[in-house]
Design brief:
Helix content is 33%, strand content 28%. With 384 residues, the chain is an alpha+beta fold. The longest helix is centred in the middle third of the chain and has 17 residues.
Length: 384
């Protein structure tokens, strides 16, 4: 699961890793107010999307005029930012990070990642020109060095010194650098992270070290023990992600939302809708451990505040009980006031009890026997 930059920096602040003072906003007027609260005469404005190469795409700008900052925020918020790293459709910009700029004396790249082959935590570093981390990945591997850390013993002082020597840091900033590397390692382990990539670890004009740009990925499988991070998931950003609580999410651009159990059934449902001339929107895949609350949330994710014109619920009960799914779906319809047509096809464990629950709910739900019957209701095509 990817985090936004402002979320990553929130983790860094809590871990004692220095980052610029900043505020997150979601309105143009809020951007201006945040700049005034931060003070100074110059501000960095950063579009928050789960992609790199934002600078080249126009998603990161600096301003010394509040009126121009307001105009940029007005243009950017609600639009889709297309970068070299995301899909041709881009990703929606729903938030902006406003920060005070930092004078840069020297700039470095530093990453922490897990090597799945060796099971070691790897620190990778190199000199940087304070560019986006996406650009740095294109550099020759010879420009970087690696230090492998055994998770059994953790990051040792001599390894922090090795990193400092390889980065050719001035000895005056070794102590704060050692503190940053140790804090990075502790954060990586404590929060079950897969990647910390710092594109701009800088020494500022006052001889202090600070993180200007960072991207963080969390292990999807660990969200069950990182509930606070699971709540930070921005499902509109990533095409395919696991949201925790027994839900997986795939974002698409059509108008028929789908709730299914199992990836095979999800693909089959998508194929048959496409073959009959329909187009699939959001798909939520539920697993055997999904709770009633998670199932209710699945309805909200699929509906996406009215973007879907209809919803198909296609469940084949095995270990998962159809009546449990039905109870969660009914709760979601009522809780989130979902008004679009809903078609249900359920077979398997306690399917009859599930159908009875739908009928008793008095919600506008069409119950069908087969997927073909569902397609006839959902898609008005000659083939149907």
């Amino acid at each position: 699961m990817n985090l936004h930059e402002f979320q990553a920096k929130q983790l860094f602040r809590a871990a004692g890793i220095p980052v610029p003072k900043g505020e997150v906003v979601d309105t143009p007027s809020g951007a201006v107010d945040a700049a005034r609260r931060l003070g100074g005469q110059q501000w960095m404005v950063k579009a928050q999307v789960h992609a790199g190469a934002r600078t080249e795409a126009g998603g990161i700008r600096d301003f010394n005029d509040l009126e121009k900052l307001h105009c940029f925020a007005q243009e950017m918020l609600g639009e889709r930012l297309i970068t070299a790293e995301n899909s041709p459709a881009g990703q929606p910009v729903n938030q902006l990070l406003i920060e005070r700029p930092c004078g840069v004396k020297n700039c470095y790249h530093l990453s922490v990642m897990l090597d799945p082959r060796s099971g070691q935590v790897v620190f990778q570093g190199g000199l940087s020109e304070c560019r986006d981390s996406a650009e740095l990945s294109d550099q020759s591997p010879g420009n970087f060095f690696q230090v492998e850390v055994d998770p059994v013993v953790g990051l040792q002082p001599f390894q922090s010194r090795q990193l400092a020597v390889e980065l050719r840091l001035d000895r005056t900033i070794w102590p704060p650098f050692f503190e940053i590397t140790q804090a990075l390692y502790r954060l990586f382990i404590a929060k079950d992270l897969l990647l910390i990539e710092i594109g701009s670890l800088v020494e500022n004009d006052h001889g202090q070290m600070m993180v200007l740009d960072v991207r963080v990925q969390v292990d999807n499988n660990a969200l069950v023990r990182q509930p606070e991070l699971a709540q930070w998931a921005d499902y509109r950003q990533d095409e395919n992600q696991v949201l925790g609580n027994g839900l997986g999410f795939i974002a698409m651009e059509g108008d028929i939302g789908c709730i299914v159990n199992g990836s095979g059934l999800a693909l089959a449902t998508l194929d048959i809708i496409q073959l009959n001339g329909g187009s699939v929107a959001n798909i939520v895949e539920i697993d055997n451990g999904a709770s009633t609350d998670a199932l209710a949330n699945a309805c909200q994710l699929v509906w996406d505040n009215g973007r879907c014109s209809c919803i198909l619920i296609n469940i084949v009960g095995g270990i998962v009980r159809c009546d449990k799914v039905a109870a969660g779906i009914i709760d979601g319809i009522q809780k989130y006031n979902i008004t679009c047509p809903i078609v249900v096809r359920m077979e398997g464990t306690r399917a009859e009890e599930a159908k009875a629950l739908f009928i008793q709910s008095d919600e506008k739900i069409e119950i069908v026997k087969t997927l073909d019957d569902a397609i006839i209701l959902l898609i008005d095509t000659p083939e149907s």
